[in-house]
Write a structure and sequence with these properties.
about 90 residues, mainly alpha, 2 domains, two-stranded antiparallel sheet, 4 helices, extended, single chain
Amino acid sequence: MESQLEFQTTYEQMLVQIARTLPPDRVAELLDFARFLQSLATNDESEWDQLFAKPDAQRVMLQMAREAREDYRAGRATDIVITEDGRLAPK
């Protein structure tokens, strides 16, 4: 039976391998998402409140919302589902 540490190490290695194949801007997005997941695990919303209060964060979120809306209206959005193994996949 695989220990928790071995299990975690396997995932860490997988993440590093994936990150090495991505362009720098995607690595930054991966890091941001990892920080988001970390904050969910710690339930520390004060850090998110501080981040969202920054003018740059508000500007970026507004731009992301505009782009998502444009993609949706242009038919470039894809419905997704959560697979049995917990992954996201196109519908």
